[in-house]
Design a protein that fits this description.
InterPro entries: Na/K_ATPase_sub_beta, Na/K_ATPase_sub_beta_sf. One of its GO terms (biological process) is sodium ion export across plasma membrane. This is Sodium/potassium-transporting ATPase subunit beta-1. Belongs to the X(+)/potassium ATPases subunit beta family. There is one protein chain. With 342 residues, the chain is α+β, with helices and mostly antiparallel strands. It folds into 2 domains: 56 residues; 241 residues, Immunoglobulin-like (Sandwich), CATH 2.60.40. It is 21% helix and 21% strand. The longest helix has 31 residues. It starts with a strand and ends in a 27-residue tail after the last strand. The relative contact order is 0.14.
Length: 342
């Protein structure tokens, strides 16, 4: 009880304060869990808990219903078989990229194909990488919706063309894809863009390589010219000196594979390219380009488009040459000769 002076009632007014409860920490903890004086659990009575749980149950049910309505509205605009945004309206755009295989599983090697043709372990490594890439193409492609296509016989709706990996010329497994020689093979493939249709070069243009111009002129019919042509070359004059040429199996992506419509069992067409007689112990930069009127080309390292660039080094000595960076001066006669191109 606290007393204080006041002008009324004799100058004295009394204030009643609740007396502080005296209890141990354990007693206070038990009262927090359950207070027998009010029948409260964790500070709330049964009525309070009922009101709280009812409110949150209704709140979350309404929230879940709104979320379900929004998701249903979103899914109603999407398709399981084709994208909503295509070509110019999509992030991918209309310019397909050109990719190559094999690619080393060792990230530090980047785009370098490097092997010693006298080292069976290294040869088997690259053969295995190509086997994994070609696995879908080597599976039986009969029945279901597979059809044999030709330039005058494109697939019907819902059908896909057979992609026969046995027609890749010298780039076959019996020859270890050329990796037991100085003429290794690599494989080219265009990225898929839904509903994209190529605009073909049916006539030669001045900036085409001479061998490609001759190949187009030798086509048997106008229909056979409806291909996305491919050409490869050394990236610099020095690189061209270290490669004797290229064989293509075939030299174009046939037009009857396009447009891509996400049909079941579809396989992108591939081109096998054989590099002829790479100069041993030299890093050679190779650039390959896809030719179509609606494929933009850029050979810049920063803005590359419509092309792909990679390096090849074929070692011919019995012990694989290793690229070593050192700050020590070493007599030139003690090192193997390695020529690199920019």
């Amino acid at each position: 009880m606290v007393a204080s002076k006041s002008e009324d009632n004799g100058g004295v007014r009394e204030f009643q304060f609740q007396q502080k409860r005296v209890e141990t920490n354990w007693q206070a903890f038990k009262r927090l869990i359950y207070d027998p004086s009010t029948n409260a659990v964790f500070g709330r009575t049964g009525k309070n808990w009922g009101q709280l749980l009812t409110f949150y149950a209704i709140f979350y049910l309404v929230l879940a219903a709104l979320f379900a309505i929004c998701m249903q509205g979103l899914f109603a605009t999407l398709s399981d078989t084709e994208p909503k945004w295509r070509l110019e309206r999509s992030l991918i755009g209309t310019n397909p990229g050109l990719g190559f295989r094999p690619i080393s599983e060792r990230t530090e090697e980047g785009s370098l194909i490097w092997y010693n043709m006298t080292n069976s372990t290294q040869v088997v490594r690259w053969v295995k990488l190509i086997d994994e890439f070609l696995e879908p193409y080597n599976k039986p492609q009969t029945g279901e919706n597979y059809v044999n296509c030709d330039f005058d016989k494109p697939p019907e709706a819902g059908k896909v063309c057979v992609t026969d990996a046995s027609k890749l010329g010298n780039c076959n497994r019996n020859r270890s894809y050329g990796y037991s020689t100085s003429s290794p093979c690599f494989f080219l493939k265009l990225n898929r863009i839904f509903d994209w249709t190529p605009d073909y070069y049916t006539e030669v243009v001045s900036d085409m390589p001479q061998d490609l111009q001759m190949h187009i002129k030798a086509a048997k019919s106008e229909e056979e010219k409806k291909q996305i042509w491919v050409s490869c070359n050394g990236q610099s004059p020095m690189d061209e000196e270290n490669v004797k040429g290229f064989n293509y199996y075939p030299q174009g992506f046939a037009g009857y594979y396009y447009p891509y419509r996400n049909v079941k069992n579809y396989l992108s067409p591939i081109i096998a390219v054989e590099i002829l007689n790479v100069t041993p112990n030299v890093i050679v930069s190779i650039e390959c380009r896809a030719w179509a009127k609606n494929i933009e080309y850029s050979g810049s390292a920063l803005t590359r488009a419509g092309s792909v660039q990679f390096e090849v080094q074929v070692d011919a000595d019995t012990v694989s040459t290793k690229l070593v960076t050192t700050t020590e001066e070493t007599p030139a006669t003690t090192l193997p000769t390695i020529t690199t191109s920019s």
